[in-house]
């Protein structure tokens, strides 16, 4: 669905990939895309990823995603968000929206004024609040599963972890890692994000950029937590870590990258599996949010990730292929 509201300047794309398991659920990304074609492509990819993510998270939801085109720092306004909410509402509940890159709880509070199918709202407005909390927790569970599969213990203690992107999700992930005894190296294109982490955790090391981070000596785990496409051919060749497990969506620039990682002995934890904590949180909001209940479900991401690694070994395929097969079977059974 292509959305445009001239008065507010809204230009957006709403993509629904599947409703086999239930109403499509996925966040709203606000980003300055280079072209409308790039925005459509991103929305379609993200919507497909949400179908698979929701299926593997055990949720009764299909996959959808929305993108608002433009720089959120200059374009975002109350009028624009209200207009966007009207477009989502026009779908009559086939798509349920939430926060994503460039949108926040306060934005969902505004959207909810014109659309009842809005999650990620503030507790004051009947919502669950910031979904990045459980997103980071879920990624941490995926890392624990990766550590157990590769090194025999569900802990990152004594391991060096590189986190690329320490914004909404990444800075929470850093806290989990440090509490578990990991050594952490970070980088971010926004200096203020780096400074926020250092203000709380001065023991964290900082790499100049992502290229320097992935080449860090002794790196055990690489966690891409910014925008998608972080793993391309060049990155796969340069990466020194033995595990890739991060919060970013659509991390593989193309499907062949995972084979390159596998050929180099690098374990890839499928992004849409380990970053499902946020969608678990907002889905719980639809039933009267209970944080303990949602966190307990997010903890199961560790078990799901381990099951995927085992399926990958038994089928002789990369983990992402194994994850796709499990998700596709659940959607097929629902149909």
From TrEMBL:
<keyword id="KW-0101">Branched-chain amino acid catabolism</keyword>
<dbReference type="InterPro" id="IPR046346">
    <property type="entry name" value="Aminoacid_DH-like_N_sf"/>
</dbReference>
<comment type="pathway">
    <text>Amino-acid degradation; L-valine degradation.</text>
</comment>
<dbReference type="InterPro" id="IPR016211">
    <property type="entry name" value="Glu/Phe/Leu/Val/Trp_DH_bac/arc"/>
</dbReference>
<comment type="similarity">
    <text>Belongs to the Glu/Leu/Phe/Val dehydrogenases family.</text>
</comment>
<keyword id="KW-0520">NAD</keyword>
<dbReference type="Pfam" id="PF00208">
    <property type="entry name" value="ELFV_dehydrog"/>
</dbReference>
<dbReference type="InterPro" id="IPR006097">
    <property type="entry name" value="Glu/Leu/Phe/Val/Trp_DH_dimer"/>
</dbReference>
<dbReference type="InterPro" id="IPR033524">
    <property type="entry name" value="Glu/Leu/Phe/Val_DH_AS"/>
</dbReference>
<protein>
    <recommendedName>
        <fullName>Valine dehydrogenase</fullName>
        <ecNumber>1.4.1.23</ecNumber>
    </recommendedName>
</protein>
<dbReference type="InterPro" id="IPR036291">
    <property type="entry name" value="NAD(P)-bd_dom_sf"/>
</dbReference>
<dbReference type="InterPro" id="IPR006096">
    <property type="entry name" value="Glu/Leu/Phe/Val/Trp_DH_C"/>
</dbReference>
<feature type="domain" description="Glutamate/phenylalanine/leucine/valine/L-tryptophan dehydrogenase C-terminal">
    <location>
        <begin position="129"/>
        <end position="335"/>
    </location>
</feature>
<dbReference type="Pfam" id="PF02812">
    <property type="entry name" value="ELFV_dehydrog_N"/>
</dbReference>
<dbReference type="InterPro" id="IPR006095">
    <property type="entry name" value="Glu/Leu/Phe/Val/Trp_DH"/>
</dbReference>
<keyword id="KW-0560">Oxidoreductase</keyword>
<comment type="subunit">
    <text>Homodimer.</text>
</comment>
